[in-house]
Amino acid sequence: MIGLFIAGLIKIIVVVMLLKGAVTPNIFLFIVNPMSSLLLAFMVKKTTESQIYPIIVFVIDCFTPVLGFLGLFIFYGLKPMMAFISVEDGEEDFYLPLGEQSYKRFEIQKKVELDNTTIQHRKTMVFERYNVEPLLEILLGDYELALKINAIEKLSNISNRSAISLLQKALEQEDYEVRYFANGALQKIEQKFLDEIDHFSDRIMEYPEKPSYYTERGNKFLEVHRLGLLDQSIENIFLEKALVDFMTSLSLDSGQSYLYTRIIEVNLRLGNLTDLVTLANIAMKSNILESEKAKILFYQAEACFQLGDYRSSQEYCKQSADLPQEFNLIKNCLSWWNEPA
User: Fold this and answer.
1) CA-based angle 92:98:104, to the nearest 5?
2) Where are the domains of the chain?
3) What whole-number distance in Å separates Cα of residue 158 and Cα of residue 126?
4) Distance separating alpha carbons of residues 209 and 241, to the nearest angstrom
5) Using CA atoms, how far apart are residues 188 and 178, in angstroms rounded to an integer?
6) Euclidean distance between CA atoms 213 and 219, whole angstroms
7) Distance, CA of 2 to CA of 140 (rounded, Å)
8) Per-residue buried b or exposed e for 311-335, using 16+ beta carbons within 10 Å of the residue's own CB
């Protein structure tokens, strides 16, 4: 956005120079105007994902000097106002979450979902909610090989923590075929995440000032670690990459205060306990949801416990228990910690 403002300012200066006679009409028409139009179109390209917008801007500005730029200036000036006053009937009743911060998170998630909405993607989302317990009995029990291979295929489509843990257990089975297909399933899941990371890396290369792409790539790095797909020798590398992406996204858009929770979680997993406590104190003063504060307090309690500060750990647990909780694991841990000695 800063680059677009600078390009527009340069254009205004060039037009003023033309009006004052500092630049001849021929030099303006054939040299200065096309170059400034190209600069303006380039800056527009960095602020939008549309491939046609920069071309339209260049054509209008270059081939209708002065008037074309004036029209573009008015259009971009009125665009935020038009977006503010235009509301589609009924949409806010069903799709607009409460709160500006929640809406930003919702908007980012929906945009990514629309980009990736395919039949296979929908199928995968259904499988992720599938219970793996029936497959556990088939895979580790005395069943035919065909049933075990079918179970492995289903687990590869589920691709949650339980499914991956079960596939890793299948690698210890005596049957070579079971080990072979289980290994292939794990490679399939890992490759899916790597492809998604590459997708967001390409988007970042094209739009380096878009914070949402850094956030989504960081989420993928963190999810790969959470699922336990990696060897211990390289899992910290993915955590460090996630930390860099979250920090970069937050620096581009400081309004994403929910990212503090992700950053603090990554620091906990990396063992950066001192950094975690410092950052958590900053996060608690920012405008974040109560449920996010509850998680941050829980992470602070965990960090203090590992640092040997048990009194602070118990105090943070009490504070966290007073706030809304989304995860049963945290609820259970807090209940245990808050039990009288």
Assistant:
1) 85
2) 2-85
3) 8
4) 18
5) 15
6) 10
7) 59
8) ebbbebbebbbebebeeeebeebbe
For 238, residues 6+ apart whose C-beta sits below 8 A from its C-beta are 221, 222, 224, 225, 230
Which ranges in 64-96 belong to alpha helices (H)?
67-85, 91-95
pTM, two decimals, is 0.58
> What's the length of the chain?
341
The answer to whether the beta carbons of residues 214 and 252 sit under 8 Å apart is yes
Per-residue model confidence as pLDDT tens for the chain (341 residues): 566 667 777 878 877 887 788 878 888 777 877 887 787 777 777 766 667 877 887 788 777 777 766 766 676 665 555 444 443 333 333 333 344 454 455 555 656 555 555 544 544 444 444 566 677 778 777 888 888 888 888 888 877 888 888 888 888 888 888 899 989 989 998 899 899 999 999 999 988 999 999 999 999 999 988 888 877 778 889 999 999 999 999 899 888 878 888 998 899 888 888 888 888 888 888 888 887 888 888 888 888 888 888 888 888 888 888 877 666 666 666 666 666 54
Q: Per-residue b/e over 176-197, b at no fewer than 16 CB within 10 Å?
A: eebeebbeebbeebbebbeebb
What number of other Cβ atoms are within 10 A of residue 303's Cβ? Answer: 24
- Cα(39)–Cα(62) distance, rounded to whole angstroms? 11
Nearest to 335 by CA among 323, 321, 322: 321
Interaxial angle between packed helices 290-307 and 328-337, expressed in degrees from 0 to 180 and rounded to the nearest 10 = 50
Tokens representing 112? Answer: 């990514």
Region of residue 318 (phi > 0: left; psi between -120 and 50: alpha; otherwise: beta): alpha
Rounded CA separation 220/226 (Å): 10
Q: How far apart are CA 118 and CA 225, in angstroms?
A: 25
CA distance 235 to 256: 26
